[in-house]
Amino acid sequence: MVNTLSDFPADRFAIYAVCDCGQMPRPVAPARPKCCVSVLTFAANDYGADNTQAVTAIHYLCDRLTREYPVFDTSNFTVEKKEAVPLFPTFVWNMQLKRKDYEVINEKIRNKLKELTADKPALEPGKKWQTDQELHKLEEFQELTGLIYNATKDVLDFLKVVYDDFEITGCWANISAIRNGHIHHTHPNNYLSGVYYVQADKGANTISFDDPRPQTYIIKPAVTELSAENTRSAVITVEEGTLVMFPAWLQHSVQPNMSDRERISIAFNIMFTSFSEKMSKPQWQADLAFK
Ligand SMILES: [Fe+2]
């Protein structure tokens, strides 16, 4: 039986490594391989009928070569620069207004919502009301509308987006009783979405965003600490006067309201006004122009 590399009867077998790098198979026994061995095949000139011994030897070599001969040995290298480059990051823009400002906005919103719910029975636990989607056209919402427009300009500038104009395509209030949450969803047919918080006590003060790369969970090792770089769902903490904006395609959800009061938030969507008229046209020059 073959138990060690030196036991391997190299004089009788020729071992070839087929490498991940795609190089042609080459002999690796007893020579040191230059890349990780994924498959070992062998050609035996004379192994007789003892196939068991040959298979054992291959399994042993595959294990040992993979562990003892990594792809590159960098232990003697001096690293001049090392960095983790965040490619294709997904942003959530989070803004907190000062109390003196959000109190003005929120008082008007609360008064309008009281008016809209005046003839309604008390909201039952687990239930929610949503208003019409054109709150941004109401006088009482003009301060919030102005805040949303300015925040949107900042986001578009941050992303260096070229555009003519944008508009709020929908803006509605969510009044959530205790134990009411909102399942995972996106806001289709818009570029940006956002939420402004009028009332979000502790226990009702989070919004969760899901990693938009489902393939990353195929391999999910344990981690020493959860972070935005290794978690599947990121939680943003909000409070009264918080404005959160995010790509409309980014899936999100809201945990059930575990506070003692209703959660009141104003959700909105943003889209480019001239999207089909101008922005969706091809952005390249034709070689053959119409005559
Ligand atoms: Fe949403």
Put the structure in a nutshell.
20% of the residues lie in helices and 26% in strands.
Helical content (DSSP H or I, runs of 4+): 10-25%
Low-confidence stretches: 1-5, 11-49
The secondary-structure element order is: EEEHEHEHEEEEEEEEH
Q: Which ligands are bound?
A: fe (ii) ion
The CATH superfamily label of the largest domain reads q2cbj1_9rhob like domain
* Shape-level CATH architecture of the largest domain: Sandwich
Number of helices: 4
Give the amount of beta strand, in percent: 25-35%
- Based on helices, strands and strand pairing, what is the structural class? alpha+beta
> What global shape is seen?
extended
Number of domains: 2
| Alpha-carbon distance between the two ends | 82 Å
- Radius of gyration, taken over Cα atoms and rounded to an integer in Å: 31 Å
Biggest β-sheet description: 6 strands, antiparallel
| Total strands | 13
The CATH topology of the largest domain comes to: Jelly Rolls
**Strand numbers in spatial order across the main sheet:** 4-11-8-13-6-5
Write up this protein.
It contains four helices and 13 strands. It is α+β, with helices and mostly antiparallel strands and 291 residues long. The protein has two domains: 5-68, no CATH class; 93-279, q2cbj1_9rhob like domain (Jelly Rolls, Sandwich). It has a six-stranded antiparallel β-sheet. Mean pLDDT is 84; it is low at 1-5 and 11-49. Bound molecules: fe (ii) ion. Fe (ii) ion (FE2) is lined by residues 185, 187, 252, 267. Residues 185, 187, 252, 267 line the site of fe (ii) ion.
